## 1
Amino acid sequence: MGERPGAGLWFSARLPVPAIGPGILLQRAMAAVIVALEPCGVTLGLKWPNDLVAWRGDRLVKLGGIIGEMGRDSVTLGVGVNLADAPILPDRPIPPASLVSLGGRNLPDRVRLAEEVLSRWQDLEHAPEPAFRWPETGDGIRWEGGQGTCLGWEEDGRLRVDTEKGLELLSVGDVSGLRG
Protein backbone atom coordinates (compact mmCIF):
# COMPACT_ATOMS: atom_id res chain seq x y z
CA MET A 1 0.00 0.00 0.00
CA GLY A 2 1.37 3.45 0.86
CA GLU A 3 5.09 3.82 1.43
CA ARG A 4 5.20 6.66 3.98
CA PRO A 5 5.41 5.82 7.68
CA GLY A 6 1.87 5.88 9.07
CA ALA A 7 0.38 5.61 5.57
CA GLY A 8 -1.86 2.74 6.53
CA LEU A 9 -2.83 0.08 8.97
CA TRP A 10 -2.18 -3.55 8.13
CA PHE A 11 -2.39 -6.42 10.55
CA SER A 12 -3.72 -9.91 11.05
CA ALA A 13 -5.09 -11.62 14.12
CA ARG A 14 -6.11 -15.12 15.07
CA LEU A 15 -9.42 -15.23 16.96
CA PRO A 16 -11.80 -17.87 18.26
CA VAL A 17 -14.36 -18.87 15.62
CA PRO A 18 -17.41 -16.62 16.17
CA ALA A 19 -20.93 -18.03 16.31
CA ILE A 20 -21.81 -16.67 12.85
CA GLY A 21 -21.67 -18.23 9.41
CA PRO A 22 -18.45 -18.01 7.40
CA GLY A 23 -20.23 -16.13 4.59
CA ILE A 24 -21.00 -13.17 6.84
CA LEU A 25 -17.78 -13.21 8.89
CA LEU A 26 -15.72 -10.86 6.70
CA GLN A 27 -18.60 -8.42 6.31
CA ARG A 28 -19.12 -8.22 10.07
CA ALA A 29 -15.38 -7.87 10.69
CA MET A 30 -15.16 -5.00 8.17
CA ALA A 31 -18.24 -3.36 9.73
CA ALA A 32 -16.30 -3.37 13.02
CA VAL A 33 -13.38 -1.62 11.28
CA ILE A 34 -15.80 0.98 9.90
CA VAL A 35 -17.11 1.74 13.40
CA ALA A 36 -13.56 2.08 14.72
CA LEU A 37 -12.87 4.66 11.97
CA GLU A 38 -16.01 6.77 12.57
CA PRO A 39 -14.10 9.51 14.49
CA CYS A 40 -12.25 10.31 11.23
CA GLY A 41 -15.40 11.94 9.87
CA VAL A 42 -15.59 10.06 6.54
CA THR A 43 -18.72 8.08 5.67
CA LEU A 44 -17.47 4.56 5.01
CA GLY A 45 -19.28 1.59 3.59
CA LEU A 46 -18.89 -2.00 2.55
CA LYS A 47 -18.47 -3.14 -1.05
CA TRP A 48 -19.55 -6.74 -1.43
CA PRO A 49 -18.06 -8.96 -0.26
CA ASN A 50 -15.23 -7.51 1.85
CA ASP A 51 -13.91 -4.11 0.75
CA LEU A 52 -13.85 -0.83 2.68
CA VAL A 53 -15.16 1.93 0.40
CA ALA A 54 -16.36 5.53 0.33
CA TRP A 55 -17.88 7.89 -2.21
CA ARG A 56 -15.75 10.59 -3.83
CA GLY A 57 -18.38 12.62 -5.64
CA ASP A 58 -20.34 10.06 -7.65
CA ARG A 59 -17.48 7.54 -7.80
CA LEU A 60 -16.81 4.68 -5.40
CA VAL A 61 -13.22 4.50 -4.08
CA LYS A 62 -11.53 1.71 -2.13
CA LEU A 63 -9.75 2.37 1.16
CA GLY A 64 -9.01 -1.18 2.19
CA GLY A 65 -10.11 -4.74 2.50
CA ILE A 66 -10.21 -7.78 4.69
CA ILE A 67 -9.39 -11.44 4.15
CA GLY A 68 -9.90 -14.42 6.37
CA GLU A 69 -8.95 -18.04 6.77
CA MET A 70 -11.07 -20.40 8.82
CA GLY A 71 -9.38 -23.08 10.89
CA ARG A 72 -10.90 -25.78 13.04
CA ASP A 73 -10.59 -23.81 16.28
CA SER A 74 -9.77 -20.31 15.10
CA VAL A 75 -10.14 -17.78 12.32
CA THR A 76 -7.33 -15.57 11.05
CA LEU A 77 -8.39 -12.16 9.82
CA GLY A 78 -6.12 -9.80 7.90
CA VAL A 79 -7.09 -6.19 7.29
CA GLY A 80 -5.54 -3.28 5.42
CA VAL A 81 -6.70 0.34 5.51
CA ASN A 82 -5.23 3.31 3.63
CA LEU A 83 -5.03 6.02 6.29
CA ALA A 84 -2.78 8.81 4.99
CA ASP A 85 -1.71 7.45 1.60
CA ALA A 86 -2.97 5.08 -1.09
CA PRO A 87 -1.14 3.01 -3.68
CA ILE A 88 -1.08 4.01 -7.31
CA LEU A 89 -2.97 1.25 -9.09
CA PRO A 90 -3.89 2.22 -12.65
CA ASP A 91 -6.81 0.69 -14.52
CA ARG A 92 -8.72 -0.41 -11.42
CA PRO A 93 -12.52 -0.40 -11.74
CA ILE A 94 -12.64 1.06 -8.22
CA PRO A 95 -9.66 3.36 -7.66
CA PRO A 96 -7.78 3.47 -4.35
CA ALA A 97 -8.05 6.34 -1.89
CA SER A 98 -7.03 7.16 1.68
CA LEU A 99 -8.92 8.66 4.60
CA VAL A 100 -6.77 11.81 4.33
CA SER A 101 -7.51 12.20 0.60
CA LEU A 102 -11.24 12.10 1.45
CA GLY A 103 -10.93 14.81 4.09
CA GLY A 104 -10.51 12.50 7.06
CA ARG A 105 -9.42 14.18 10.25
CA ASN A 106 -8.53 13.06 13.75
CA LEU A 107 -6.72 10.01 12.41
CA PRO A 108 -6.13 7.66 15.31
CA ASP A 109 -2.75 6.36 16.32
CA ARG A 110 -2.31 3.08 14.43
CA VAL A 111 -1.70 1.04 17.60
CA ARG A 112 -4.85 2.43 19.24
CA LEU A 113 -6.80 1.83 16.04
CA ALA A 114 -5.62 -1.79 15.87
CA GLU A 115 -6.56 -2.26 19.55
CA GLU A 116 -10.02 -0.78 18.88
CA VAL A 117 -10.56 -3.08 15.90
CA LEU A 118 -9.40 -6.12 17.85
CA SER A 119 -11.75 -5.22 20.67
CA ARG A 120 -14.67 -4.94 18.26
CA TRP A 121 -13.74 -8.25 16.61
CA GLN A 122 -14.41 -9.98 19.93
CA ASP A 123 -18.18 -9.64 19.36
CA LEU A 124 -18.86 -10.09 15.65
CA GLU A 125 -22.30 -11.52 16.38
CA HIS A 126 -23.45 -7.96 17.13
CA ALA A 127 -21.47 -5.86 14.64
CA PRO A 128 -23.39 -2.75 13.54
CA GLU A 129 -24.48 -2.10 9.99
CA PRO A 130 -22.19 0.09 7.86
CA ALA A 131 -23.49 3.48 6.69
CA PHE A 132 -23.99 2.02 3.21
CA ARG A 133 -23.46 -1.13 1.19
CA TRP A 134 -22.56 -1.42 -2.46
CA PRO A 135 -24.09 -2.68 -4.62
CA GLU A 136 -27.54 -1.58 -3.54
CA THR A 137 -30.77 -3.16 -4.71
CA GLY A 138 -31.32 -2.15 -8.33
CA ASP A 139 -27.66 -1.49 -9.18
CA GLY A 140 -26.37 -3.03 -12.38
CA ILE A 141 -23.19 -5.01 -11.72
CA ARG A 142 -20.61 -6.93 -13.70
CA TRP A 143 -17.95 -9.41 -12.71
CA GLU A 144 -15.65 -11.84 -14.45
CA GLY A 145 -18.08 -14.37 -15.86
CA GLY A 146 -21.37 -12.53 -15.43
CA GLN A 147 -23.56 -9.51 -15.07
CA GLY A 148 -26.94 -8.68 -13.65
CA THR A 149 -28.96 -6.51 -11.31
CA CYS A 150 -28.42 -6.59 -7.56
CA LEU A 151 -31.51 -7.75 -5.70
CA GLY A 152 -29.98 -7.37 -2.24
CA TRP A 153 -27.65 -8.89 0.31
CA GLU A 154 -28.64 -12.14 1.98
CA GLU A 155 -28.33 -12.48 5.76
CA ASP A 156 -25.72 -15.21 5.24
CA GLY A 157 -23.46 -12.81 3.29
CA ARG A 158 -24.31 -13.88 -0.25
CA LEU A 159 -25.35 -11.41 -2.93
CA ARG A 160 -28.70 -11.97 -4.67
CA VAL A 161 -28.48 -11.08 -8.38
CA ASP A 162 -30.96 -11.24 -11.27
CA THR A 163 -29.01 -12.49 -14.30
CA GLU A 164 -29.98 -13.69 -17.76
CA LYS A 165 -29.86 -17.22 -16.28
CA GLY A 166 -32.30 -16.19 -13.53
CA LEU A 167 -31.72 -15.66 -9.83
CA GLU A 168 -28.14 -16.30 -8.68
CA LEU A 169 -26.81 -16.22 -5.13
CA LEU A 170 -23.16 -15.22 -5.31
CA SER A 171 -20.70 -16.29 -2.64
CA VAL A 172 -17.28 -14.80 -1.92
CA GLY A 173 -15.41 -17.41 -3.97
CA ASP A 174 -17.79 -17.11 -6.96
CA VAL A 175 -16.90 -13.59 -8.06
CA SER A 176 -13.82 -11.66 -9.04
CA GLY A 177 -13.69 -8.01 -10.13
CA LEU A 178 -17.17 -6.87 -9.09
CA ARG A 179 -17.93 -3.44 -10.56
CA GLY A 180 -20.83 -1.24 -11.64
## 2
Amino acid sequence: MVALNAFGQNIKITLFGESHGPALGIVIDGLAGGITIDETLIQNQLKKRRPKSVYSTSRIEDDEYEILSGIYEGKTTGAPITFLIKNTNTHSKDYFDNANSPRPSHADYPAFVKYNGFNDPRGGGIFSGRITSLFMIIGSISKQILNPKNIFVGSHIQSIKNIEDNSFDFAKINDSLIKKLETLDFPVINSDIEASMKELILSAKNDDDSVGGVIESAIINLPAGIGEPLFLSVESYLSSLIFSIPSVKGIEFGLGFNITKKYGHEVNDNYTIENHQIKTTSNNNGGILGGISTGMPLIIRVAIKPTPSIGKIQKSINLKTNELVDLEIKGRHDPAIVNRVVHVINSVLYFGILDLLLFSKPKEWML
Protein backbone atom coordinates (compact mmCIF):
# COMPACT_ATOMS: atom_id res chain seq x y z
CA MET A 1 0.00 0.00 0.00
CA VAL A 2 1.47 3.38 -1.03
CA ALA A 3 1.51 6.09 1.65
CA LEU A 4 -0.27 8.85 -0.24
CA ASN A 5 0.51 11.66 2.20
CA ALA A 6 4.15 10.72 2.65
CA PHE A 7 7.20 11.84 0.69
CA GLY A 8 10.96 11.36 0.71
CA GLN A 9 13.59 8.73 0.06
CA ASN A 10 16.26 9.10 2.75
CA ILE A 11 14.24 11.38 5.00
CA LYS A 12 10.54 10.53 4.94
CA ILE A 13 7.87 13.02 5.90
CA THR A 14 4.21 12.23 6.52
CA LEU A 15 1.65 15.05 6.79
CA PHE A 16 -1.72 14.89 8.51
CA GLY A 17 -4.55 17.22 9.49
CA GLU A 18 -6.89 19.64 7.76
CA SER A 19 -7.46 23.38 7.55
CA HIS A 20 -10.32 23.47 10.06
CA GLY A 21 -9.58 20.30 11.99
CA PRO A 22 -8.20 20.33 15.53
CA ALA A 23 -4.57 20.23 14.42
CA LEU A 24 -2.02 19.68 11.67
CA GLY A 25 1.06 17.53 12.02
CA ILE A 26 4.21 16.18 10.42
CA VAL A 27 6.19 13.04 11.16
CA ILE A 28 9.86 13.18 10.10
CA ASP A 29 11.74 9.88 9.88
CA GLY A 30 15.37 9.34 8.90
CA LEU A 31 17.22 12.18 10.57
CA ALA A 32 20.45 11.25 12.32
CA GLY A 33 20.50 11.23 16.08
CA GLY A 34 22.35 14.12 17.72
CA ILE A 35 21.25 17.03 15.50
CA THR A 36 20.69 20.17 17.58
CA ILE A 37 17.28 21.57 16.74
CA ASP A 38 17.18 25.37 16.56
CA GLU A 39 13.62 26.15 17.63
CA THR A 40 14.17 29.88 17.21
CA LEU A 41 14.87 29.25 13.52
CA ILE A 42 11.71 27.13 13.19
CA GLN A 43 9.60 29.84 14.82
CA ASN A 44 11.11 32.56 12.62
CA GLN A 45 10.45 30.54 9.47
CA LEU A 46 6.85 29.87 10.50
CA LYS A 47 6.43 33.59 11.11
CA LYS A 48 7.59 34.38 7.55
CA ARG A 49 4.76 32.30 6.08
CA ARG A 50 2.07 33.81 8.27
CA PRO A 51 -0.08 36.70 7.01
CA LYS A 52 0.96 40.03 8.49
CA SER A 53 -0.83 42.86 6.73
CA VAL A 54 -3.71 44.05 4.52
CA TYR A 55 -2.03 42.23 1.63
CA SER A 56 -2.98 38.85 3.12
CA THR A 57 -5.85 37.02 4.79
CA SER A 58 -7.09 38.18 8.18
CA ARG A 59 -6.95 34.61 9.48
CA ILE A 60 -3.98 34.69 11.83
CA GLU A 61 -2.75 31.43 13.34
CA ASP A 62 0.09 31.60 15.84
CA ASP A 63 1.47 28.25 14.59
CA GLU A 64 2.56 27.31 18.07
CA TYR A 65 3.71 23.71 17.90
CA GLU A 66 4.25 20.78 20.21
CA ILE A 67 7.03 18.24 19.77
CA LEU A 68 5.54 14.85 20.58
CA SER A 69 8.51 12.59 19.82
CA GLY A 70 12.02 12.29 18.47
CA ILE A 71 13.70 15.22 20.25
CA TYR A 72 15.18 15.05 23.75
CA GLU A 73 16.97 17.92 25.46
CA GLY A 74 17.12 19.84 22.19
CA LYS A 75 18.66 17.09 20.06
CA THR A 76 17.22 14.51 17.69
CA THR A 77 17.15 10.99 19.12
CA GLY A 78 17.17 9.17 15.77
CA ALA A 79 13.54 8.12 16.27
CA PRO A 80 10.70 9.62 14.18
CA ILE A 81 10.01 13.25 15.08
CA THR A 82 6.41 14.41 15.41
CA PHE A 83 5.38 18.07 15.37
CA LEU A 84 1.78 19.12 16.05
CA ILE A 85 0.31 22.55 15.24
CA LYS A 86 -3.15 23.27 16.63
CA ASN A 87 -5.72 25.26 14.64
CA THR A 88 -7.05 27.99 16.90
CA ASN A 89 -8.64 30.58 14.59
CA THR A 90 -11.13 28.75 12.38
CA HIS A 91 -14.45 30.19 11.17
CA SER A 92 -15.96 26.96 9.88
CA LYS A 93 -19.46 28.46 9.68
CA ASP A 94 -18.27 30.50 6.68
CA TYR A 95 -18.36 27.26 4.66
CA PHE A 96 -21.72 25.84 5.75
CA ASP A 97 -23.95 27.85 3.38
CA ASN A 98 -22.01 26.68 0.31
CA ALA A 99 -21.12 23.18 1.50
CA ASN A 100 -22.93 21.58 -1.43
CA SER A 101 -21.52 23.88 -4.13
CA PRO A 102 -17.87 23.49 -5.19
CA ARG A 103 -15.87 26.71 -5.32
CA PRO A 104 -14.50 27.49 -8.80
CA SER A 105 -10.80 26.60 -9.26
CA HIS A 106 -10.61 24.83 -5.88
CA ALA A 107 -10.20 21.11 -5.27
CA ASP A 108 -13.77 20.87 -3.91
CA TYR A 109 -15.39 19.09 -6.87
CA PRO A 110 -12.68 16.57 -7.80
CA ALA A 111 -12.21 15.80 -4.08
CA PHE A 112 -15.98 15.30 -3.72
CA VAL A 113 -15.91 12.77 -6.56
CA LYS A 114 -12.73 11.01 -5.43
CA TYR A 115 -13.83 10.62 -1.80
CA ASN A 116 -17.52 9.91 -2.51
CA GLY A 117 -18.67 13.13 -0.87
CA PHE A 118 -16.89 12.53 2.43
CA ASN A 119 -14.15 15.15 1.92
CA ASP A 120 -13.92 17.96 4.47
CA PRO A 121 -15.24 21.11 2.71
CA ARG A 122 -14.16 23.56 5.43
CA GLY A 123 -11.39 25.71 4.04
CA GLY A 124 -10.47 23.00 1.55
CA GLY A 125 -9.51 20.41 4.17
CA ILE A 126 -6.11 18.88 3.41
CA PHE A 127 -6.00 20.80 0.09
CA SER A 128 -5.72 24.12 1.93
CA GLY A 129 -2.62 26.28 1.97
CA ARG A 130 -2.80 25.89 5.76
CA ILE A 131 -0.94 22.59 5.34
CA THR A 132 2.15 24.48 4.12
CA SER A 133 2.99 25.45 7.70
CA LEU A 134 4.28 21.88 8.01
CA PHE A 135 6.68 22.41 5.10
CA MET A 136 8.17 25.31 7.04
CA ILE A 137 9.13 22.94 9.86
CA ILE A 138 10.96 20.35 7.73
CA GLY A 139 12.48 23.19 5.68
CA SER A 140 13.81 24.85 8.83
CA ILE A 141 15.48 21.65 9.99
CA SER A 142 16.95 21.04 6.52
CA LYS A 143 18.18 24.63 6.35
CA GLN A 144 20.06 24.36 9.61
CA ILE A 145 21.80 21.21 8.32
CA LEU A 146 22.72 22.66 4.91
CA ASN A 147 23.70 26.26 5.72
CA PRO A 148 26.80 25.27 7.74
CA LYS A 149 27.85 23.28 4.65
CA ASN A 150 27.60 26.52 2.62
CA ILE A 151 24.49 25.42 0.68
CA PHE A 152 21.85 28.16 0.52
CA VAL A 153 18.41 28.58 -1.02
CA GLY A 154 17.04 32.01 -1.89
CA SER A 155 13.91 33.11 -3.73
CA HIS A 156 12.32 36.34 -4.83
CA ILE A 157 9.00 37.42 -6.29
CA GLN A 158 9.84 37.48 -9.99
CA SER A 159 6.45 38.93 -10.88
CA ILE A 160 2.99 39.69 -9.60
CA LYS A 161 0.57 39.76 -12.51
CA ASN A 162 2.38 42.02 -15.04
CA ILE A 163 4.84 43.75 -12.67
CA GLU A 164 8.31 42.24 -13.06
CA ASP A 165 11.30 42.16 -10.74
CA ASN A 166 14.89 41.78 -11.96
CA SER A 167 16.06 38.21 -12.56
CA PHE A 168 19.04 36.40 -11.09
CA ASP A 169 22.27 36.37 -13.03
CA PHE A 170 22.14 32.60 -13.63
CA ALA A 171 25.90 32.10 -13.89
CA LYS A 172 27.11 34.37 -11.09
CA ILE A 173 24.77 34.66 -8.14
CA ASN A 174 26.10 36.69 -5.27
CA ASP A 175 26.00 34.79 -1.96
CA SER A 176 25.12 37.96 -0.08
CA LEU A 177 22.05 38.50 -2.32
CA ILE A 178 20.72 35.01 -1.55
CA LYS A 179 21.27 35.51 2.18
CA LYS A 180 19.61 38.94 2.05
CA LEU A 181 16.52 37.59 0.25
CA GLU A 182 16.13 34.96 2.96
CA THR A 183 15.71 37.71 5.56
CA LEU A 184 12.95 39.64 3.74
CA ASP A 185 9.22 39.17 4.28
CA PHE A 186 8.49 40.47 0.75
CA PRO A 187 11.65 39.43 -1.13
CA VAL A 188 12.42 41.30 -4.34
CA ILE A 189 15.76 42.10 -5.96
CA ASN A 190 14.73 45.56 -7.13
CA SER A 191 13.26 47.23 -4.06
CA ASP A 192 11.83 50.04 -6.23
CA ILE A 193 9.05 47.76 -7.52
CA GLU A 194 7.90 46.49 -4.11
CA ALA A 195 5.42 49.35 -3.61
CA SER A 196 3.89 48.80 -7.06
CA MET A 197 3.46 45.08 -6.40
CA LYS A 198 1.79 45.73 -3.06
CA GLU A 199 -0.45 48.39 -4.60
CA LEU A 200 -1.57 45.88 -7.24
CA ILE A 201 -2.39 43.28 -4.57
CA LEU A 202 -4.39 45.85 -2.59
CA SER A 203 -6.23 46.99 -5.71
CA ALA A 204 -7.27 43.40 -6.45
CA LYS A 205 -8.43 42.98 -2.85
CA ASN A 206 -10.53 46.15 -2.98
CA ASP A 207 -12.12 44.83 -6.18
CA ASP A 208 -12.97 41.48 -4.54
CA ASP A 209 -10.41 39.83 -6.82
CA SER A 210 -6.95 38.27 -6.67
CA VAL A 211 -3.64 38.09 -8.55
CA GLY A 212 -0.96 35.46 -9.15
CA GLY A 213 2.69 35.58 -10.03
CA VAL A 214 6.03 33.85 -10.51
CA ILE A 215 8.67 32.98 -7.93
CA GLU A 216 12.31 32.59 -8.99
CA SER A 217 14.60 30.50 -6.79
CA ALA A 218 18.30 29.73 -6.70
CA ILE A 219 20.23 27.02 -4.86
CA ILE A 220 23.91 27.89 -4.59
CA ASN A 221 27.08 25.94 -3.78
CA LEU A 222 25.46 22.58 -4.49
CA PRO A 223 28.19 20.18 -5.65
CA ALA A 224 28.13 18.53 -9.06
CA GLY A 225 26.81 14.99 -9.33
CA ILE A 226 23.64 15.24 -7.22
CA GLY A 227 20.50 13.55 -8.58
CA GLU A 228 19.39 9.96 -9.23
CA PRO A 229 18.23 9.54 -12.84
CA LEU A 230 15.86 8.61 -14.18
CA PHE A 231 12.94 9.09 -11.81
CA LEU A 232 14.75 10.75 -8.94
CA SER A 233 16.55 13.26 -11.11
CA VAL A 234 16.85 16.77 -9.68
CA GLU A 235 14.07 18.08 -11.91
CA SER A 236 11.64 15.22 -11.41
CA TYR A 237 12.16 15.05 -7.65
CA LEU A 238 11.93 18.78 -6.98
CA SER A 239 8.98 19.18 -9.36
CA SER A 240 7.05 16.50 -7.51
CA LEU A 241 7.67 18.30 -4.22
CA ILE A 242 6.87 21.77 -5.58
CA PHE A 243 3.55 20.60 -7.03
CA SER A 244 2.48 19.50 -3.54
CA ILE A 245 2.19 23.21 -2.69
CA PRO A 246 -1.38 24.45 -3.31
CA SER A 247 -1.85 26.87 -6.26
CA VAL A 248 1.35 25.91 -8.10
CA LYS A 249 0.56 25.62 -11.83
CA GLY A 250 3.97 25.44 -13.49
CA ILE A 251 7.69 24.98 -13.01
CA GLU A 252 10.74 25.49 -15.20
CA PHE A 253 14.49 25.17 -14.77
CA GLY A 254 17.06 27.57 -16.20
CA LEU A 255 15.69 29.30 -19.28
CA GLY A 256 12.81 26.85 -19.27
CA PHE A 257 10.38 27.34 -22.14
CA ASN A 258 12.35 30.34 -23.43
CA ILE A 259 15.23 28.03 -24.36
CA THR A 260 13.10 26.88 -27.31
CA LYS A 261 13.35 30.33 -28.88
CA LYS A 262 17.13 30.15 -29.29
CA TYR A 263 19.67 28.39 -31.50
CA GLY A 264 21.81 25.72 -29.90
CA HIS A 265 24.97 27.80 -30.04
CA GLU A 266 23.17 30.56 -28.14
CA VAL A 267 22.18 28.41 -25.17
CA ASN A 268 24.80 25.66 -24.88
CA ASP A 269 26.73 26.17 -21.64
CA ASN A 270 30.44 26.08 -22.53
CA TYR A 271 32.96 24.81 -19.99
CA THR A 272 35.77 26.77 -18.40
CA ILE A 273 38.07 26.52 -15.37
CA GLU A 274 37.72 29.09 -12.62
CA ASN A 275 39.82 28.93 -9.45
CA HIS A 276 40.79 25.33 -10.34
CA GLN A 277 37.10 24.35 -10.59
CA ILE A 278 35.20 23.26 -13.68
CA LYS A 279 32.35 25.68 -14.35
CA THR A 280 30.30 26.87 -17.31
CA THR A 281 30.46 30.32 -18.83
CA SER A 282 26.66 30.52 -18.89
CA ASN A 283 23.94 28.64 -17.05
CA ASN A 284 21.00 28.42 -19.41
CA ASN A 285 20.24 24.86 -18.26
CA GLY A 286 19.83 26.06 -14.70
CA GLY A 287 22.59 23.99 -13.11
CA ILE A 288 21.17 20.62 -14.21
CA LEU A 289 22.15 18.31 -17.07
CA GLY A 290 20.80 14.79 -17.47
CA GLY A 291 18.90 15.28 -14.23
CA ILE A 292 22.18 15.76 -12.31
CA SER A 293 23.57 18.94 -10.74
CA THR A 294 26.49 20.53 -12.60
CA GLY A 295 27.92 22.57 -9.71
CA MET A 296 26.42 25.77 -11.10
CA PRO A 297 23.52 27.50 -9.31
CA LEU A 298 20.20 25.66 -9.62
CA ILE A 299 17.66 28.06 -11.11
CA ILE A 300 13.97 27.33 -10.71
CA ARG A 301 10.86 29.36 -11.51
CA VAL A 302 7.40 28.49 -10.19
CA ALA A 303 4.05 29.82 -11.42
CA ILE A 304 1.43 30.58 -8.75
CA LYS A 305 -2.15 31.08 -9.88
CA PRO A 306 -4.39 33.89 -8.60
CA THR A 307 -5.95 32.89 -5.28
CA PRO A 308 -9.20 31.13 -6.28
CA SER A 309 -11.21 32.44 -3.29
CA ILE A 310 -12.53 35.83 -4.41
CA GLY A 311 -15.49 37.97 -3.37
CA LYS A 312 -17.11 38.23 -6.79
CA ILE A 313 -20.27 36.25 -7.57
CA GLN A 314 -19.35 33.11 -9.53
CA LYS A 315 -21.21 30.19 -11.06
CA SER A 316 -21.32 26.76 -9.48
CA ILE A 317 -23.53 23.67 -9.19
CA ASN A 318 -25.51 22.47 -6.20
CA LEU A 319 -24.27 18.88 -6.06
CA LYS A 320 -27.45 17.69 -4.33
CA THR A 321 -29.94 19.19 -6.78
CA ASN A 322 -27.71 19.48 -9.88
CA GLU A 323 -28.93 23.06 -10.32
CA LEU A 324 -26.82 26.01 -11.42
CA VAL A 325 -26.30 28.47 -8.55
CA ASP A 326 -24.72 31.86 -7.93
CA LEU A 327 -21.90 31.37 -5.46
CA GLU A 328 -20.53 34.01 -3.12
CA ILE A 329 -17.46 32.77 -1.25
CA LYS A 330 -17.39 33.87 2.36
CA GLY A 331 -14.47 33.75 4.74
CA ARG A 332 -11.01 35.30 5.07
CA HIS A 333 -8.80 34.94 2.03
CA ASP A 334 -5.56 36.20 0.49
CA PRO A 335 -5.80 38.55 -2.51
CA ALA A 336 -2.40 37.08 -3.46
CA ILE A 337 -0.42 34.21 -1.99
CA VAL A 338 2.77 34.72 -4.00
CA ASN A 339 4.28 36.76 -1.17
CA ARG A 340 3.61 33.93 1.32
CA VAL A 341 4.32 30.94 -0.93
CA VAL A 342 7.81 32.28 -1.70
CA HIS A 343 8.88 31.24 1.80
CA VAL A 344 7.22 27.82 1.47
CA ILE A 345 9.15 27.19 -1.75
CA ASN A 346 12.43 27.93 0.04
CA SER A 347 11.54 25.36 2.69
CA VAL A 348 10.49 22.70 0.19
CA LEU A 349 13.72 23.19 -1.80
CA TYR A 350 15.86 22.91 1.33
CA PHE A 351 14.19 19.61 2.19
CA GLY A 352 14.37 18.26 -1.38
CA ILE A 353 18.05 19.06 -1.78
CA LEU A 354 18.92 17.56 1.59
CA ASP A 355 17.08 14.35 0.72
CA LEU A 356 18.86 14.09 -2.65
CA LEU A 357 22.26 14.76 -1.09
CA LEU A 358 21.78 11.88 1.33
CA PHE A 359 21.90 9.33 -1.50
CA SER A 360 25.68 9.86 -1.45
CA LYS A 361 26.24 10.82 2.19
CA PRO A 362 26.16 8.85 5.45
CA LYS A 363 23.65 9.87 8.10
CA GLU A 364 26.47 11.32 10.21
CA TRP A 365 27.02 13.94 7.46
CA MET A 366 23.95 15.74 8.83
CA LEU A 367 25.68 16.48 12.13
